[in-house]
Design a protein that fits this description.
By secondary structure, the protein is mostly helical. The chain contains eight helices and no strands. Helix 2 packs across helix 4, helix 4 packs antiparallel against helix 8 and helix 6 packs parallel to helix 8.
Length: 273
Amino acid sequence: MAAEQHAPTASEYIVHHLTHLSSKHQGFIVDMSVINLDTVFWGIVTGLAAITILFLAANKATAGVPGRFQAFVEMMVEMVDEQAKSIVHGDRSFIAPLALTVFVWVVLMNSLDFLPVDLPGRVIEWLGLEHSIHYHRIVPSADLNGTIGLSLGILILMLYYGIKIKGAGGFIHELFAAPFGIALAPANFLLNLIEYAAKTVSLGMRLFGNMYAGELVFMLIALMGATNIPALWGMHFVAGLIWAIFHILIVVLQGFIFMMLTLVYIGQAHEGH
């Protein structure tokens, strides 16, 4: 007779929900050959959703009295455009729409954290895929791979605009001459490399840390409802509601911070030391 299945312990429950659906087992902490398929899937889904929302808003825009949806999108556009004007001194025809897209995309990825933590597993069971999909996480911004991927995209834009604005020669000269002069070229080059690396890592780590912590808190609150203590059942609902309301601020704020830092870093690429 097969051994009876037992309910997972709190540690097993959390570890299960924090494990990604990966292309293969990760043998080392840094393994570039491993792809977290759930992060890629939900990142693409939310990215397409962000593009669709902005496309519909632009397609349905009217010159008359705007509806609620158009007014909401126009508020976001004006907010992002004002920030871009104050930070980026140059052509913003691509940068402002980029910042708006980044803001909407990150907020949508973060918003997936509001879904019940056990819902993905239940949906997978309803579809009969539990034997092939053992793990599934739906918050791409709670995966360091996802957030570092975003920040690497911003790094590429920083380098692109640095070369575009200053020219290849001017950009290379700045790498070796700023901030202490060409006489200290090796030290300048090392400091500039560290600066680019620090910007990239901190941008991704900030978003990841906040969303990972929020996801973990939701799991701990969910565990309160699974105890045999009746007094905690009501606390499970109250704590979940309070944290969800507070998490709305975190979700939007982290999207805003990521967008602002994107503008700041690209704006710095337009300027010399």
